[in-house]
Amino acid sequence: MSVVTAVSSEFISDRLNQNLRALEFYYPELYSRFYNYAQKSNIRLVINQNGEPDVYFPSSDTLLYSGQSFAKCLKIANDLIDHLELFSLYPALTELDDPFTQIHFEYRNRIVRDVVKELSGADPISKAESFPCILQIGLGLGYQLGYLYEKMTPLHLYVIEPDPDLFFLSLCCFDYPPLLNYIHENNLHLEFRIGNDFSNLIDELNVYFNWHPVAFAAQCFWIGYHSSVIKQLMSLLSENFASITLKLGFFDDLMFSFAHGVNNLSSGIPVLYSNKTCLSEYMRNFPLLLVGNGPSLDDYIDFIKDNQDRFVIMACGTAFSTLCRCGIKSDIYIALERGVNVYESLIAIKEHREYFEHTLCIGTEIIYPKVFELFKNRLIILKDNEIAPLWLKKIGKIDSNTELPVASRINPLVSNFGLVVASIFGFKQVYMAGVDNGVIDDSSVTSPNLHSRHSIYADESETGKFKEGCQRISRLFFDYPANFGGNVKTDSLYMSCIRAMEYCISKHSENTKFYNCSNGAEIKGAKPFRLQSIKLGNDNFDFTEFKQELISGCRSFSLTVDDLKKIIDVEGYCRFVDDTVRILTEIPKDRLEFLEIEEKLLDSIEKTKINDWYKMFLSGSLSYMLLPVNEYLYSTADEESSLRKAGAFIKIIAEFLNLTKEIIPFALEYVQNEHVRVVEKAKKKYEKGFFE
Description:
Number of strands: 23
Strand order of the largest sheet: 14-13-12-11-10-17-21-22
Low-confidence stretches: none
Largest sheet: 8 strands, parallel
Mean pLDDT: 87
Strand content: 5-15%
Radius of gyration: 28 Å
Structural class: alpha/beta
């Protein structure tokens, strides 16, 4: 291409040195990476016909900006500002079902109703001078960043540049120091993520949004240039981005965890205490069949029934009831969820009492306590990112240096927990059946379903039909490779399940062989396998010996109410809520300052010395409640009016926080269903105090 000339080495050297000094001050890790950087490809910086820096690709004889670097970067920035659209990770303006009567949902839905009412007939915003968060996909030479900050201010800008060589070239030509100085002097946030290894990208975004929940509130995607890698990246983000919402807890959710954990741990149920596997080599060599309740389980029911004593059967969630109905006893029942609905699904099959007598129930400490009461054999594995280990250390039940084994990455579905448990126990062969994570995309199937036809979701009054609302096939809109070829239809929930399973498999593949026998989604690292092809040994599984070996690695805790009252600290919590409300009700002068108050508030929660579980539910509940407020602020044109009306929404959040002060003293009683009595008592006390 004759239209290009090389950039002078003197210009590159001066600009690069200036930018490296700025990186050394603001981004020392990037500085270490790009100091003395050697390019991996032969792309190079050139001057185009307009005398502007551009990037030349010798392999295709093309320029990144086609000879119009400044004009194209300006257009990229203007297009974003002129067509700015919120991409919310959560249904911000949709009222959510509340089957368990939770005050978090009650107050959040009140805000949503008010926001929707205010937006009805309001003039839509055409341009905004600020924005919560922008994800820049593909940085290129970076000139669009300068144009963007000239015209508007994102509180958070998260830059993903897949090509390190391109980022290095941007350091050779774009003047970064003034921009970086401005961003950091104004307490704004600019994050760089450089490289094309996307295996941990969703996890990294999870961490970022957990640290900066305001960024979680609203984002938009901003594409800097187009390439096959950018297309791959956007596909990954669209399939997995919604999983970030699964990381935030909220008030009732964590209060249930606390009360359930108190009840379960104080009842003397053995807790896994050793990180080393307690099972003998003989036991670990038995094949373990991990059973989910997907539709392809029906392909194996007869085979499992005929061979049920020849392998360890681990039933995940409602797969337990499906196997019971088919005359198959499970050796292990895996329970994950804290909802009372898990208990209700089990008592629906109470006629199978002999199966409950045999099976070992393995659950986290947070599950509904009556679930454990149904089983003769019980075992608790503590859940990561919950608060039980903190209680146990604070009240002196375990040494402060002791690290109890915890189950990590066990959400969003119970089959994730099952796979983690199988890995913790050290089984060497794990076969997954009915773990479909989607529905086979087959036009010949006129009525696809999400569960086994033997499950509790099936309509017993009409063969082949399912109870209304149980299938939700319409939610499946992603195409994903199927385990035995072809494609499945899946969704972000199942995609999160797949990613968690793949992570678990990657961590344990050296000692365990994983087989995916399900006619559903592919799970990388698990070999596609038809269960009927399994080679079974001659020995029958000895459940009694298995249970005895497991218990040897467990211990029980004797917890009293007095022990646990020590960590509630009602007075400290009330003081903290008062401080939070004061920050929340500060009066902002514009939208950006409103966002900055939110950031200040959530940052103060993170840095406080109050109990960690208070931080978890306050940060989560506030983030979810601020979502519709922020969407309102960035959806209506009249900034002054929108800020005034947002103040009314904030009053609802303040009322919610003040009500929690009346509930905290009864935290030990906040067991699901029973908590309704606590809430009613707290509301009466709050209303009485308010009117007095």
